[in-house]
Amino acid sequence: MVKKGILGVLVGIWLLAPHPSGGAAWPWQWNRVDKQGNRTGKWRAYYNHKPDQLMYTGRFKKGKERGTWKTFSADGKLERLEKYEPKHKRIKTTFYHPNGTVSHRGMAYLFEEKNLLMYKWHGDWHYYDSTGQWRGWKSFSRGISGSPQPILTNRPPTKKGASRAW
Question: Model-level pTM?
Answer without folding.
Answer: 0.74
